[in-house]
Amino acid sequence: MKLTTEQFTTLAHELDSVKQQVQQQLGEADARYIRRVLLTQRLSALSGRILLVLGFITPWLWLAGVLLLALAKILDNMEIGHNVLHGQYDWMNDPVLHSRRYEWDIACDAGSWQRTHNFEHHTYTNIIGKDRDFGYGLLRLSNDFRWRLRNLWQGGTYLLLSMLFQWGVSYHELAAQRVFFGKKKLERHSQVSDSELKKAFFGKGARQLIKDYVFFPLIAGPMWLWVLTGNLLANLLRNLWTSTVIFCGHFTKEVYVFSAAECETESRGQWYYRQMLGSSNFTGPTWLHILTGHLSCQIEHHLFPDIPARHYPAMAKQVQAIAAKYGIPYNTGSFVRQYSTVFLRIMRYSLPGGEKAVKAL
Amino acid sequence: MLGNQSSLTLYFLPLLQCLAPGFLPGQYRARLLYRQWQTADMLKLNFSVSGRWPGFVPGQHVVLTLKHNGRYISRPFSICSPLSLWQSQRQLQLCCKINRNGEFTPLLNQLKNGAVVNISEAQGNFVWQQPAAAVVFVAAGSGITPVAAMLLSQRHWMAPVSLFYRCRGAENAALLSDLQQLATRQPLFTLTLSDSRTEPAETLQQQLIANSSNKQFYLCGPAAFMQQVRTALTNSGVNARQIQQEQFGLVIPAPAEHTTDTTQLTASFIRAGISTQVTLNPQQSLLQSAEQQGLRPRFGCRMGVCFQCVCDKVSGQVRDLRSGALSGHGTEQIQLCVSQPVTELVIKL
């Protein structure tokens, strides 16, 4: 399945033209779509917060409030925040939906996210030692990592990580830079100083905590406990959902990993190839795609991170055909199937041994 | 903090736009009442403007923002109507040169009556400062718009004022009838048309020099034209401080004849944490170079007026296309649309 240099060139050419076709038709329909999602997000956030207080009429209203607030937080995090911060809507010149301006409703500072996720993860996808998203420095996901005692209970670690996912994401860059613990890695050079990182981390984190656990409970008066619990649950639901979606994107059974040396002088075709092998999709109805921010089409997202995500399902058909033509594995399946392989992987590698991940190049 | 955006207005923007279509924070809504061709390519648009708009000083311009095919795009236009129209009826007029191959101006001709656009606060310092002194206005082509606003707004005439209006014949002179009426009404005002098809520029310059003593000059028109007039005036002894000017459009200086420096410049544009290497064309603005490589920085007027494309230059030197001024080498904010690369650059979009 190793491709020749010419094949890599034509592969890049074909995928570029898939991208170009979509780029040419960007316009009114995309703008209307994302503005409608934003409006839905705002309306569900507002109605959710109001319903939490109305829980004194019947707890069912409170429950509806929790679900609506969780929906708002998921939309803000995935279909809006993640995609806007990738610059997918920069062409609209919008005062809100622009990667330079958008700030989202999670603990992670948008700037920090753009550095760790957009740059590190998207550039060095699944390169062991470079892409810290592969296991987040917490989980052992292949035999490329030495087994340590703490891996024995990584099922529990994973559950905790999922529940506190926004804080994991927020702390990600500080962990990589060894801001608080560990020895600095000499080869890492950062655009921002440690003190700026700390300021962004504590500043954004504190603002989020005060908003959800001090301000809104306070203005709810006697309903403060209901509101506080509701906010906590909404954040928890969003954390579990985003973590689950993201784990399905890179840690399923047939996902490939790479070594830094393999990728040092890679061509555009090889980069595309690595993105296809390093990601996995899952299938489902349209609403599921929207709730995942179209990260259900993780492969297409990794190939074309700055194309408005609503085009991914249509592009997936073309990409899958191209993959088949070149004999490149295209990892897709139902949500349940993909997630169960993720879970099995976490469990399997909590024990010593196991297989090394497939090396691709 | 509550909405995670820089202001609560931005958080509620989707809802506010449902209530008031076209609402944009920091902008004012203007409804098109009618439009009317002044000449073959000059279109006059008459807007009814939101009462919140803080008003203007004649000679100033506004940045007009339209939504087209999902994007917000904007350009600056001078106000051509007198102050009284705004004060009495909350209306203003823009006189725009329609470039049929352009991206923006053809859209103005497609606006329907009743359409809502956004305008900025009035900007610019090309205004009539000393109405008591004798003044010579020199306008060429669409440069007439701010000058017309100044003249038509003037209530108390205290000193002689002359306008030299250079254009391709009377049929291509926008706002001409208004100015002619003013000339018949107001004895202190003289209007001289200069036909660029029959009359060489030198004749106009000689006329200007002939009565240049103790006068203030206000120039508005294409950059090359103004440069000529300015040079002629200063050579004949007019103090540079007596000359005010406003220019339209960006003039990108022609490449030097013998560019020995053929080295390709590159810039790293860092957007959303990802660095993209871009080969720069030293003849173009950074905005154009970035766009040609598929980057999509935020932009607006593309001529240095609206400050939407301001971004952080981390290192390297740029030249301001309008003034030719060189920047420093360190970290500072630059406007992409009017900056030309001088050295290798690192820019955060």
What does this structure look like?
The complex is a heterodimer of chains A (361) and B (349). Chain A has 361 residues and is mainly α. Helix content of chain A is 59%, strand content 0%. Chain A has 13 helices and no strands. Chain A has helices spanning 5-25, 28-53, 59-85, 110-123, 154-163, 165-176, 194-219, 224-250, 268-277, 286-291, 298-303, 312-326, 335-348. The termini of chain A are close together. In chain A, 49% of the residues are buried. Chain B is α/β, with parallel strands linked by helices and 349 residues long. In chain B, strand 8, helix 6 and strand 9 (189-195) form a beta-alpha-beta unit. Chain B folds into three domains: 8-119, Elongation Factor Tu (Ef-tu), domain 3; 135-247, Rossmann fold, CATH 3.40.50.80; 265-348, Roll (Ubiquitin-like (UB roll)). In chain B, the strands form four sheets. Chain B has a six-stranded antiparallel sheet. Chain B has a five-stranded parallel sheet with strand order 9-8-7-10-11, with helices on both faces. The longest helix of chain B has 13 residues, at 223-235. Mean pLDDT of chain B is 87; it is low at 254-260. Chain B is built from nine helices and 18 strands. The interface between A and B is large, with 46 and 34 residues.
